[in-house]
Amino acid sequence: MISIQGLKMEFGSEPLLDNINFVINQNDRIALVGKNGAGKSTMLKIIAGLQRPTEGTVSLPTDVSIGYLPQQMRLTDERTVRQEAALAFSHIHELDESIDRLNAQLQHATDFDSSQYNNLIESLASKTELRAMMQADNAEAEIEKTLTGLGFERADFERPTSEFSGGWRMRVEIAKLLLQRPDVLLLDEPTNHLDIESIQWLEGFLKTRRGALVLVSHDRAFLDNVTTRTIEISLGHIYDYQVNYSRFVDLRKERLEQQMRAYDNQQKMIHDTEAFIERFRYKATKAVQVQSRIKQLDRLERIEVDEVDNSRLRLRFPPAPRSGDYPVIADELRKDYGTLNVFDHVTFTIRRGEKVAFVGKNGAGKSTLVKCIMNEIPFEGTLKLGHNVMIGYFAQNQAQMLDEDLTVYDTIDYVATGDVRTRINDILGAFMFGGKASEKKVKVLSGGEKSRLAMIRLLLQPVNLLILDEPTNHLDMRTKDILKTALQQFDGTLIVVSHDRDFLDGLVEKVYEFGEHRVREHLGGIYDFLAKKQLGSLQQLEARLKPTASVTAPAAVSAGRLSYEEQKERERRVRQAEKRVKSLEQQIEMLESDIRAIEEELAGGGNADPGIYQRHATLNSELERVMNEWELAGEELEKIKTLST
To answer: Using CA atoms, how far apart are residues 41 and 71, in angstroms rounded to an integer?
Structure first.
């Protein structure tokens, strides 16, 4: 579908990408990976046609459409959420206008045997068929389903986008892109602004959509669940693996081991050759051999080691000073912003040494509760910190607190203590500040680089309560692994706000879920919580299906049994759902019969009524709509039956 050939990209004198060649096939699901700065985002921009390479070509058929989601984008605030999402269907309005013009021309045509008339007929048939394929009549339903999946409430649809944070407005852009259904989807870190539930919805969407996908993400679980091919960019070259990310990690390790052995052997050969040249350089009897060895070295293609392997680096925290048994105790906490209640009746206790996660939809109050613990904002209720609690806090805006006149090295050197000071360069290298990068002034660093530096600085300070708010947003996967290992070995108490399931897995033993103005405690790890969440969703659905009258109805005779009134109500709902499914099946049969009749008429030849193509397209579109309704009705019937057992 898309062919990348001889691609080269230079910034200054350094090649970022060098002689890149690969093909994106029609249904490929590609994870594009590599360390920060390797060229992943640049590669996406080149494929999208937004950046010209220094050399090489990107070839694709003219009818292939590409959708591109950058990490950052300019957002407008002139429309409501629904109106902004509806822009994804602007091409359908243009198609409708074209169809109307063709119909008008056919109505005034008189020369039915001319080639011009036949061309009009063919053009109309093509465009109406294309419109039917676009499922244009389902646009509103698709908009609502997509926005809901990305975390919006129905009440949000008519709100102007200016009322939402940058993260939520980014979700609108994701919705627009998904609704356009491009042949090739290029996504650059799409999960940075999504919560866990929205990430899971996006996973499901991407796994079932047709077309090619090229995805850049630092979320290992997301990559494993969505992609089946991994392309790594390293030192300007690519390595293509027909496997998902986890399998790629194993194969990459084998490749690096082989590469290192070949590098060591070549270095030994170079050393021996240079020693021979130096030893016999001035001996006339060896002049021919010396010149031969010099030419041999000149022609030698030097093996490069892809990257420094930091997998053995162990970043250890200073021992945590002992705190009281209960570092954080909250009792009946409540927080309001004006008339908006963020949470209420929040009561929990975090014990010394516990590692817990705050999860939930964006805007549900996770960062707000952290600010309450830090005493940065006022609140109602009681919140006590235990004896001798020393907090280390990483906020999402932590980078703004760095001294911009210091170098990277000095920023860390000022807070490092003990034997850590002898390993500052190793630690900086693990967090992508190796070599000359450690000499940079903080003021010239990017936002992501400042965040990483702030993280290192925090991790070297002696504290016993670490609070991390989205710590992994600017870290690549190998750096996240180093951080995760260090946190697992941390002997203090940890509160982490994150949507990264792989990072939380094996790190936390308790999850606090934020939502519906409450905070609920779940024992177990993140995947235990997600498994319970699936069951919890069914229970919430059951609660919504209960009739209002059941609120005051007598309790069931025993746990697990429905009252007589509830059972009758369930039976009534099952009958209604079955009737709905049967009615839709009858509509489908009628529509299919009408479509077959038109197709038989067209197959018989002769001068067909020009309107027949429009009727054929309309019937196909209606069939598609009814089929969708039938599918949803069937799912609803199965849910009601499940809840009735």
So the answer is: 8
**Rounded to whole angstroms, how far apart are CA atoms 557 and 594?**
54
Which residues make beta-bridge pairs with 55?
8
Instruction: Give the pLDDT of residue 557.
Output: 34
* Rounded (to 5) percent helix, strand, coil in the chain: 50, 20, 30
User: Distance of CA 233 to CAs 33, 37, 147, 331, Å?
Assistant: 6, 10, 33, 50
Which is it for strands 510-515 and 355-360: parallel, antiparallel or unpaired?
parallel
Nearest to 542 by CA among 528, 519, 524, 560: 560
Size (the chain), residues: 645
Q: How far is CA 356 from the centre of its chain?
A: 23
User: For residue 644, what pLDDT band results from cuts at 50, 70 and 90?
Assistant: low
Identity of residue 158: E
- Please give the pLDDT value at position 559: 35
pLDDT for 379-418, tens place per residue?
Answer: 999 999 999 999 989 887 676 778 888 999 888 888 777 7
88-105 pLDDT per residue, tens: 887 677 777 788 888 887
| 117/120 Cα distance (integer angstroms) | 5
- Exposed (0-12), middle (13-18) or buried (19+): which is 539, by Cβ within 10 Å? exposed
364, 515 Cβ separation under 8 angstroms: yes
In the chain, DSSP finds a helix count (H) and a strand count (E) of: 19, 18
133 alpha carbon, distance to own chain's centre:
28
Token pair of 467 as six digits: 């609070």
Q: What does DSSP say about strands 510-515 and 518-523: parallel, antiparallel, or unpaired?
A: antiparallel
Q: Say how far apart CA 340 and CA 627 lie, in whole Å.
A: 41
Q: How many CB atoms lie within 10 A of CB 33?
A: 27
DSSP state of 72: S
Helical ranges in 330-441 per DSSP H = 366-373, 408-413, 424-430
Question: Which tokens sit at 194?
Answer: 């999504």
Tokens (6 digits) for 485? 């290992």
**Helices 166-180 and 139-149 sit at what angle, rounded to 10 degrees?**
140
Enter the DSSP assignment of 164. S
pLDDT, one tens digit per residue, over 273-289 is 888 888 888 888 888 88
pTM: 0.63
Q: Which residue has the tokens 């494929």?
A: 47
pLDDT of residue 24: 93
Using the 8-state DSSP alphabet, how is residue 604 labeled?
A: T
Residues with Cβ within 8 Å of 314's Cβ and at least 6 positions away in sequence, in order, are 485, 486
